[in-house]
Every structure is written in structure tokens, then in C-alpha cells.
Amino acid sequence: CFEICMKVIGLLETVEVDENDQLDEKALNTQEICRLCNGLFYWFFMKNPKNQELGYGELEMFLNTLDDDVNSHHVVDAIFCGNEVLMRQVPRKYFVELVDKIVKNGKSHRYLSLFAAIVNVGNKNIVENQVEIVMNLTSPGRFQKVASFFVPVHHVDYSEKRELMQPLLGIEKDFKMDELPPLLAYHISLLKVLSRCTVGRINVTAVEAKVQSVFAYNDIVDSILDDGSILVTKLYMSEFFYNAVIDVELSIPGLELSKSVWKLLDSYREVLANAKNDLMEADSLGWASPLVSSHKIQYMLVSIRIVQGFFTSYFDPTVFKDTQTTSKNKEQTNLTRSQVDEIIQDLFRFISSVHNLNSPRLSTEVKENILNALETLKKSSGKLRAEAIKLVDFDITPPIGAQEKKDDHEDKIIKKLQSFIEEIESDKTVLQKAENENVAFISLLEKLPFVADPVDADVRYEALIRKLVFHIRENIKIVDNQKRMDPRVTTTSRWIVRAFRTMIENRMGMSIYERDDEGGEKQDLAAAPVVNALNTCGATALCLDLIADGIDESLQMEAIKLGVGLLFKEGGALEVQNIMNTHLRKSNSELFFKQVRLTIQKLQAWHNWHQIIELKDGEEPNPPEEILILRMLQLMCEGHYLPNQDIMREQSFNLVTYNLLDDFANYLKCLVRLPCRTSTVAAIRLSATILEVLQGPCSGNQAHFTLNTELLETLNRLNRSKIIRDCLEGEEIDLKKTSIDILQALLEGQGDKSVVFEKLLSVLHLDIIQFMSNNLLQGKVVQKPNEYTPFKDEFIEEKIILKTECVVLLQTLCNFRPSLYDELGISRRVEDIVGSGTAMIEIIWRNDIHRRFFYVPRICDYLAKSSKDSLVENVDRSNAENKLIDFLNRSHDLYREVKHQQLLTEMNLSRVFSLTNQNRATWISFVLAVVLNGFFISDYSYRTGEPTISDWVNNVTTYINATQTVVALFTLILWLVVRTPVIYQSYLASNVSRLEAVLYTATDGMTLYYVIYLGISLLGVFVENYYVSLLLLDIVVKDATTRAVLNAVITPWKALAMGALLQAFVIYIYAFYSFYFFRSDIAPLCDTLTLCLKFTLSYGFQNGGGIADSYEHSTGNRLIMDLTFFCVVLVILLNVVFGMIIDTFSSLRAERERKILDTNNRCFICGIDKQIFDRSSDEPDGYKSHIKIDHNMWNYLYFIFLLWEQDKDDDDGMEQYVRRAIAANEIVFFPANKAVRLEQIVSPTELVRRDLMGSVDMMESNLNSKFDEFQGEISSMLYQLMQSLKQDTLQPSAPPPTATEIILEFNDDVADDITAITDSSYMIAATSTHINTNIELGIVDMKGLTMSVTELLSLKCKIVVNSMTTFDINASKVDKNKVVAFEDTWCTLPSDVSNVEVSVFNNSAMRSKAVQSASSMGEAKLLSSIVVNLDQIRQAAGTDTEYATVSMKSDSSTPFLITLKVRPAK
Fold first, then answer.
1. DSSP string, 1142-1171
2. Helix, strand, or coil here: 1381?
3. CA torsion, points 569, 572, 575, 576, in degrees to nearest 10?
């Protein structure tokens, strides 16, 4: 049907007029058929999106037939009716073409049909269309040709309007536009277009101002009140007055006292007096009745809207006097307060009658407007307020019985349709099935194998993703500097992009909104495969392409959500960020940044419109969904990704740069001026983005925010703000903390002579920062985390963190300007700063040592003293480097320990299960073992022939033994609960399997020890008491000294084992010889070799003289054996073993003393001796203060814990640096052999002197810069003069060289300046002497430049003659050796030329002082000038060669050669 009708419309091309400009019968019939087809199209397109897309495809044809009188303008209206997507797709060229038709063809209302159709959907305005239409209609010089009757009523042109309306006066009919005189219809249509261009709440302020300027409100009102105006004119004039004058963002001054406006309001008493009767007539007869005037009712309703808007936005009862006075301004009304009140009461009475009628003909929105008008009038009149009139809020649903019978069938159909829709929307089964279709498709996508999966499959996940991405991208086109997408593809594209995001959310197990608060690395790792696939297949770049001016807003929103999902990763999604940065740089990304700016401005306009929003209890803030784009921009810079931080400020790769930093600052300024919870929530999101684009640091953004925006002033206002209205304390603290972080980020990495520091100190309100650092916690009690009474302040921890940040900021500022210590009354002693949950460490960052104050996280309170003692005792102190590396390694175990203890605390188990209790239990068990053995010593005896104790002692020891066993069992349980999980986690962290981790944990030495300990205790209870004596060996575990004794035997175990083996062999040898030769001397103890060996072992060691003491003394043959046994075994071998043990013990003791000395006399962090701090400090105990405050090893551990507790996304530049160093097990951030305390040992007078010297140095640097510039100019002039004098001394009769090569050297400074230039254009000129020879000069080549090929090709040489005539020679090609060849161009130097100047210029930014000091020629800036002696040049030109070469050589670290060619002039 559509195609057939289009073919019929195409027949209009065959319609021709005859010689009398008339249509013949055939043409008239064709025209009528086309008119009928357009009538069909009107209803076919009306509010049917799919059909409207078909019509939009033929929009140009319908616009081309506007002049054919076939009602194409109605079809245009139907194509766009209610279709926001299509409205945003209209090419801008149509606007220009239609306005041109108005100017050239005449003022026809049909030309305005497109404008009226695409500016708004209800109250939602299409801003870009409104702006473009108003610009095209009201541009200077154009509006006079487009306007019609926009003049005062007494103007001569207005009389023509009266004449057009005169025949229609008195006719009770609702005229259609086509029934009105063409010029009048055009006038009304133009009013309608301009009126609709001011509809909406967002970004229309400039449009409103422009529309107001083309038609004065007094003239509008006079036209409405004119007796010669017909009803339809009054209606659209009133609509124009309401939208362009009353319902505006910026009020018109003086309107509240305008005489003409009050005349209009007074006239409404007559209009509204009959409103009730008109509505009752419409209710009874229906709209179709010729007796009912819809225009009359519409005029009545717009009058009510004007009343409501005027008394809401303009009316001020205080400006009216009780008695009538004569105003000096003739335009102001003279009404008294009572007269005004009378008008208000009459209007209230008439509007009340309309309201009380509760007409079913009026829509819900109209009824709400009527009720709002009554409420406004009631508030505006003192009498009405006093009467306390109650307004009835009727049910907006019209009663069925109120409809006339002829509309019953239609009403029933509508009712059934609405009922059907409601049932579908409420039917969970239907909704579930619809959702399942999406889920099923996404499930199929997720089941597809990836390319890397080793399976056979026809379709791979990545391939399908690429197809879908390509499908969307191929439908994106750029039209009129806007991106356009085929409307038929928009819906499917939105669905595909949503599916991409859903796949990420499915992998994460949560939505992107939940991921912000509840997600972490676990979710990022789970989603990584899908994110990587989408990123490599083009989905990331697609997101950026879809966020552009002209793309459907809902599709843009889906693209933003997908972008956020792709960018989620702790510490920054570097791969995604790289793709985004590359795509933005290589593609035309102007539309992306333009849309980002428009979105931020839209958010700002939304807040400006709604102003302060006070939420009710339980109501949550609901800012526009587009605020998510701030999160996307933040994630693009996450992890301090500098390339993306920089492009937020400037996009040098685009023709147009959008500085988003300015938009951030302006938006924050807007939010701070509107104190409410909604603004706070938006400001938290915005400030987080500002913080992310600064940290790292990004020096360019730091400078721009500080020097070129009002960010500092806004932060001052924010920090001074109080909690008012519906604001929550926690959110306000969070916002202020972020503001302090922003100030720190602005100063991050700034040097001593920083303009950022200077500007910040000149603007920042330090008093409020100091107040927050001192008084924020006044009267608050800080409790430790293991205390179970609730906090007295719910936000105590947040306040401590905020206070710490303020302290850090003040210290940073004081370090830059030490005089602030005295100005602010801040102590210079670090000891006075640290405390109340605040700690300080020193860190090496950016090749300098920095003090870092930080809030000690609560988790650090779970660190047990025994764990600290263990670390101090066992850390590797072999050298300073190993000590710090081991400290980092052990910090992981300590962190697992405190995390586990935190878990036990959350489970309310920490009162029993803690390392402290476990340590106490072991000591109780040991004490009980000592007491038990004490009783045994005092009472055990052989009273009955076997060991026994008295009954009472037996009873006591039995109870003690049982108690000791229970304590041993409790100790084992404590170990299993408190320590075993930590050991298990440590093994898992070392990349072993879970089973292996369980086995290693079960066989851990201390675990086995406590099991054995319990077993011995049980043996002591149930078997014999002598087992209890073994428990005393527990002292070895508890005391380091006894462990050292045991280690003296254990450490040299290999040597001791070899010594014992040697002794065994020697004793066996002696036993063998005793058995053979001297058995009779000791029989029967040596009857067998075995008995003899036992004898030798036992008596040989026990007797002081060896085995000889067991024999009868003899001086015979046994003498040699006795003596050698004594000397070898007892003197030599046994003492060798003793010596090894003693030496080991001595070395262990020396090592222990060395550790104690290192612990007590050397800083753990910097490794500097104690004496250095004590000697350099003016106060006693300088070393103790240093290790307690500056380099407290536990503060470093706490800072490491803070980093691990803190989200990676919250790291600033220094924290990120330290985190990465820890991850790489590097100790570069520790201040080895450095301490601020040693560097800052100066008196207060010296500090002031340094501060003053810094200012003097800055002034001296500026003066030196000026002198350098002046010196550069003088040097250049002197060099030229010297060269001229030198050339004058040359003999002109010198023989000309056959092959000429003249080398001219630049001075080193100039040469360095030239080689420093990257993208330059070099201008070369020459200077001649007075030899009467005409020559021609050209450029051969230039070589030796270290520049890119593109830059080399951009070189341009200029030869300047007599400072007037110039010759340009451009580079032509560059070979593989980067030798630049120039165009074959010659410039003639006549014989009468006094000089020719050779100069080098640069078009880009200069990079050295010598360059900056030079003068300029045109837009180029002079690099260097040189005088060339042309005597030899002219002689060379006179040789027989075709031409000679002249080379100019730079003598620098990067030399290059410029070769000129010279020949006689032709």
C-alpha cells in the first residue's frame, strides 16, 4: 500500500500548467488523487513508529511537494508526531532550504510545517532543533524577510493584518490553517513555531532571549486585546506569550507591574466567566458538534496557564500600594492592592467553577494545571488565604457515563485497549517470557567458544561480536556535522549494546551500579574474558562512536553503560583505556567530546531548573541518568592514565578542542550553589572525576584548573558549607574529603617554584582548612575496634580521615612556604601533629623525599604484640636491603593475620580467640607445669619401695595436672582457630593446591608441637607423672636465649654428626684391640666383642682417665692404648665436638648481639646510626623521636595495610607508586640513608631567610631571562658586524676554486637552538658584497636533521633581499637517508643589491631563550641571522661549471648541512 501510494505521489512530476498557468482536468484529478493519498499517509504515519520510519525515508519527496497543494505539510507533521528519534535525525540542510523558500517563493505556512513538527515532544524539547530553527529564522538580515506582523498594533503593517481578519470577525467557527488567508496562516504558523522553540526546561535560555527580542511582550498583549483579532489569532498569540514570556527560566524585569499585562489579566475575567458553560456544552454535545468551539475552550485553558504562570513567577503583592498613585512610568499599572485582590478573587471564582465541573473532556494534565492555578491564586490573595478555602482534588479518571452515546463505542475500544495493556504489563508470565527471549539470546552468545578454546565449532564468539559491531557501525553516517543512524537500526543497536553489557554483568554476578559499591578484583577477573573479547572486537571503539551529537539519547545511554562495564577494573583497565585513547586520536572524535560537553551542560541545566530539591523521609536522590557519563570519564583516567587525562583538556588531533575541565568546574560551581542532598550526590560523582583527572599527577590539568578556572573558589565555598535541609552528614563529609583530596592532587609533584602553589595559597581559605584539622573531632571519643560499645559518633572514622587529610594539606603548604607555620600558629614539631589516629612516614617519590601523613586504618589495632615481637626478632638483618625486603615479605603474613582477626571480631569470637589469649594460654600452661614439677620435687620418695607421694599432694597435683591438660587443649584449639587459617592462606598464596596447602598446614612445626604438648599432658594424667617433666622444655619455645643454646647444637648438626661418627669408629677400634689383647684384664665385661664395645663406650666417656680407670694400672703393653685413648678420644675428639658447640653458640650470641645493636642503635627504615640523630638534634633523644615519629617501622606497616585496605581506584599518585613497588617486591620507596629530620635542621630565622631567598631567586630568574633575551639580540648583531668586517679584508684577486664548497658555521648556541626544533620551517637568506655580478641562488638539499619525514617535508626556505623581496622554496622530497631535496627554484640577486640576508625562522613554539629573543618576520619567528660573504659566491658563479655549491654547516652535537647552489644570472 505504501509503495503504491508513493508511486501515485510520484505522478505529481507529470502535472503541468497550461499557457494560462492553469491545471487541466487531468492534472486536477491527479492532484486530487495525490491529496487523498496524503490523507491516507497522514493516518498511516500518525504515532506509528515503524510506519513513520518508512515516511522518514521519503521525507525529501514530501518536502519537495509542499507547493503542490496536496497537503504534504500534514504528512510531514504525521511523520514526526511523538517520534523523538526521528526528530533528532533531520538533516540541517532542510532548515536552510525551507527558509530560503520562504524568502524566494513567499510566506507560506506549509514551509513551516517541518519546523513545528520537530522541536518538542510534549514538554521535552529537542534542543539542537530549537536552536537551529531559531538561528535560521532570526539571523540578522533574514528575520525582516521572514517575519510577518511582528509589529505594534499602531504600526502601518498591522493594519494589513486587521484587514485580513476583518472578514472572519463574528464567524463562530474554528478555522483551520488552510482556511485562513495565506499571509495570516503564515503569521500564526510562525508564532506557533517560535512558541514551540521555547518549550522545555533544559538549555533554552538563549533561545527564549532571542525569541523575546523579536516580538516585544507589550506588542503581543496589545495584539491579543485588539478588538480586530479573531479567536484563532488570540489563541496562538497567547500560546506564544505563555511559552516565550511567562514560562521562562530568566524572568523579564518589570513584567509584574506592566499595565498591558494587567489589562490582559483583567480581560480574562470575561473569558473565564463563560468557561463553565462552554465546557458543559462540550460535555453534552461533543467536540464534533458545530455548536462547540474547541478554540474557545483552548483559549480559556491557555488563559488559565498564563494566570498560573504569572502569579507563580512574577506576582509580588508588596509592590502595590493601598491607595492609587500616578506612576512616572506610563507602562506601569496604577492598580491598588485592593483592585489587584479583586481581580485575583474573580479569577479564582471563575476558575473554581471550571475545576468543580470536573469535565471529562479535560485531560489529567489540564486538570492539574487548573488546580495549580487555584493554589497559586489562593496564596496570592490575603482574603482567599484568610477564608481557608479547600480545593477538591477530583479523581482524574472520567466517569464512563459522562460520555455521549456517539462516543461510547470508541470509549469502549480505548478502555479495552488500556485494560489489555495493563494486564500485559502486570502479567509476570508475559514479562518473564519477554525477558527470557533476551536471556536466551544472550545465553546462546555466552555459550559460543572463544577463538582460543580448543574445540571444534563453526561460529566463534569473537567473530559474531565483530559482525554485530560492524552491523551497527556501517549504519552510522555524519550529516551536517552530526552523526546519524538509520532509525530502523537504532532499536536493534540499542538492544545489541545492552546485550554486550548484560554479558559483562552476568560474568560479574552483579549490575554495573552494584559493582561500584560491592564489587572488586573477583568480579573483574570473572568478567575479564568477555571484556577482552569485546575490547578486541571493536565494542570499545563503538561505544565512543555512539556517544556523539545526533545519535539517539537512549542508544547513547546504553553506550555509556557498556563503556563503564568495559572500564571496570581495580587500578584501571589499561587495555580498554589504550583502545579508547587510540581510537579518539586516530578518528574524528570532535562529536564525542562535543556530546560530552552537551551532556554535562544538560546536567547543569537540569539542576538550574529544579534548583534546591528537598527530599522527603525515605526518598533517595534521583539525578538524571546521564550523570553516569562522569563515571565513564573517571574510569577512562583510572590508574592515573596520563594520555586520557590530557585529552580531557585538549585534543590537538582534532580541528576543534573541547576543554572538559572548564565544564567540570562550571558544573561543580552550579552544584555547590544549590545546597541539597541531590546536589551533594551529583557533586560527589563529579568531584571524584575531577580528582581522577588530576592525580598522577597530570601537570597540565593541575595548571589549567588552578590558573584558568574557578575551581579553587568553588572548593572554598564547598568546605565552608554547613549541613542543611535534607543533606546527610556522611555524604557531606565524603564530599569535603574529596575536595581536600582535589587540593592535594593540585599540589602533587609540584616543585619549589610552582605557580600552582602560589595561586592556591592566594585563593584558598586556609582558616577553614585549619578549623577542620583542629575542631572536627572536638568532644568526640574514639574507640578501638575490639571494643564492643557503639560509637558515640556514627561517622567518627570518616571525620578522622578528613582531619588527617586537612593536616596533610596544611603540612604540604607549610613545607612550600615555612612562614605559614607562624601565620597559622601551627607547630613545627611533627610530634605535635601525629596522633589521634594519624601517623606519618617518609617516602622517596619522584627523586625526592616526602612526608606522608595518613589515617591509621582500624584493622591495624588487630595486630598482636607477639606478632610484632616475632617480626623484630626474626627479620633478616644481614644488610639494610635484605632487612627491608624481608619486612615487605613478612607484611603479607601479618596482613593475613589481622584480616583473620577482623573476621573473628565480626563473628564475635575475638574475645576468646585471639593471638593475645593464645600467648597467655601458653604461659599459663608453662607456669602450671613448673608448679606441678615443684610439688613432685618436694614430695616424691620411695616410702614403700617404689616412688610415691603423699595423698594430699597427689590430690593437688591431679587437679593441677587436669587443669594443665585443659589449658593445653585450649591452647591447641586457639592455635587451630587463630593461626592455622593464616598459615593455610599463606600456602595458597604461594600457588600450591588446596590439598597441598591442607597437608602443609597440618604438618606445620608449631601445629605438631602443640599436638605433642597435649599428648604429653594426657600421658602425665593417665600414665605416669614423669611425663610432666618433659613439659618444662616449653621454655625453649618461649625464650630466645634458651633457643640459642639449643640452636648451638642444632645449627652445626652436620659437623657434630661427622665428629660423632669419627668417635664411634675410634672407640670401636679400641674396643676391638681390648677384646683381642686385654680381655682378661676386664673379664667378664669383655667376653664378646659386643660387650667389649659397650664397655668401651660407657666407661671410656664416664671415667676421667678413659678406659684405663676401669683396669688395674699397668706400665706394660696396655700403657700405649690407655694413653692414646685418653689423648685421642677424651682430649682431642671430645673437645673438638665441644668446641664446635661453643663456637656455634658464640657466633649465635654475636649475631644476636649484632641484631640487638642493629635494633637499638640503627633506624630500621633508613639505616642511619643513632649517634647521627642524637648529635644533630637540638633536643635530647633525637634518635628516639626519629624512630617513633619519622621512621616508625610500624607506621610503614600500617601504610602498607592502608593501601591493601583501600580501593586501588582511590590511590593518588604516591600511593599508586608505593603499591606498584610493593607488588614488585621493590624497596625503592623506602628512604634509604635519608631523613627529612636531618635535612631540615635549621633555625626559624634560617627558614625565613630561605623563604625570602626563594622569592629573590624567582625574581633573579625572571631578570636573567630578560638579560638573556637582550644578550641574544646583541650577540646576533655583533656576529653579523664581525662577519662583514672579516669579508672586507679579503683580497678580491684570489683565484676562484674549480669546485666551490664554502663552509659557514653557526655559533654553538644557534646551532643548538636549530637542532632543538621539531616541527619548524627554516627560512634561509643570503647577504652579498658590492661585486658587479648578477647571480642566481637556489637550495640543493638539507641533511643531518633528526626529524620525522612528515616534519622534513614541511620545511620551507625563504631568501630575503633588501628586507623586501622574498623568494619561497619548499621541500620536494625526502630520501631514505633523510636528505631533504628542494624545488628547482632560482632567485636572482642583481649586482646593485647591497646585501642579502640569510636568516633562519620557526613557525612553531620556541624552545630556547636565544630563539625567543629574536625578532620575527610575518608569522614566523627569527631563530638566527648570519651575514654571508658573497665575494667567493660570485667568483664561484663565474666558473665554467653549471653551478657551484655553497654549504652552511652547524657545529653542534647534532650537526646538519644546508647546501645552496649558485650560478651566473641568465
1. HHHHHHHHHHHHHHHHHHHHB-TTT--BHH
2. strand
3. 80
Written as nine digits, the cell of 1289 is 679584508
Pairing of strands 1396-1402, 482-485: unpaired
Backbone angles phi, psi at 1217, to 5 degrees: -60, -45
Q: Which of 1025, 1181, 1380 minimizes the C-alpha distance to 1369?
A: 1380
* Separation between Cα atoms, residue 1427 and residue 1424, nearest integer Å: 10
Q: Using an 8 Å Cβ cutoff, are 602 and 628 in contact?
A: no
Is residue 1353 within 8 A of residue 1304, CB to CB? The reply is no
| Among the listed residues 1296, 1295, 1330, the one whose alpha carbon sits nearest the alpha carbon of residue 1439 | 1296
Per-residue pLDDT reduced to its tens digit, 321-377: 877 776 667 788 888 888 888 888 888 888 888 888 888 888 888 888 888 888 888
773 or 1451, which is more confident: 773
How many angstroms separate the CA atoms of 922 and 1036, rounded?
A: 12
- pLDDT tens for residues 1371-1424? 777 776 778 787 777 777 776 665 666 554 544 333 333 333 333 333 444 444
**Residue with C-alpha cell 582477626?**
901
The answer to whether 1393 and 1361 are in contact (CB under 8 A) is: yes
The rounded distance, in Å, linking the Cα atoms of 938 and 761 is 79
Longest C-alpha distance within the chain, in Å?
A: 167
Report how far residue 1157's alpha carbon sits from residue 1167's, in angstroms, rounded to the nearest whole number: 12
* Helices 699-708 + 711-720 axis angle, to 10: 80
Encode burial over 297-322: b for 16+ CB neighbours within 10 A, e otherwise: bbbbbbbbbbbbbbbbebbeeeebee
Rounded percentage of the chain residues whose pLDDT exceeds 70: 82
Q: How far apart are CA 743 and CA 694, in angstroms?
A: 10
Three-state secondary structure of 145-207: HHCCCCCCCCCHHHHHHHHHHHHHCCCCCCCCHHHCCHHHHHHHHHHHHHHHHCCCCCCCHHH
Taking the C-alpha atoms of residue 852 and residue 1229, their distance in angstroms, rounded to an integer, is 12
Is the torsion defined by CA of 583, 586, 592, 597 positive or negative?
Answer: positive
> Which string of b and e fits 932-958 if b means at least 16 CB within 10 Å?
bbebbeeeeeeeeeeeebeeeeeebbe
DSSP state of 854: E
For residues 581 and 572, give the distance between their C-alpha atoms in angstroms, rounded to a whole number: 14
For the stretch 1286-1291, contacts whose Cβ atoms lie closer than 8 Å and that sit 24 or more positions apart, written own/partner, are 1286/1429, 1287/1329, 1287/1427, 1287/1429, 1287/1431, 1288/1329, 1290/1429, 1290/1431
- Residue 624 preceded by cis peptide, ω within 30: no
**Cα separation of 418 and 403, whole Å?**
17
SS3 per residue for 587-601: CCCHHHHHHHHHHHH
Cell of 1207: 580501593
Q: What stretch of H or E contains 1205?
A: helix 1193-1205
CB 1201 within 8 A of CB 895: yes
Give the strand pairing for 1457-1464 and 1335-1343.
Answer: antiparallel
> Radius of gyration over alpha carbons of the chain, in Å?
47
Q: Is the confidence at residue 803, as pLDDT, over 90?
A: no
Closest CA to 937 of 928, 925, 949: 949
pTM exceeding the 0.85 threshold for the entire prediction: no
DSSP assignment of 885-936 equals HHHHHHHHHHHHHHHHHHHHHHTT-TTTSSHHHHHHHHHHHHHHHHHHHHHH
Torsion-angle region of 1167 (φ positive above 0: left; ψ -120 to 50: alpha; else: beta): left
> What are the residues whose beta carbons fall under 8 Å from the beta carbon of 245, sequence distance 6 or more?
212, 217, 220, 252, 255
What percent of the chain clears pLDDT 90, i.e. is strictly above it?
18
Cα-to-chain-centroid distance, residue 320: 53
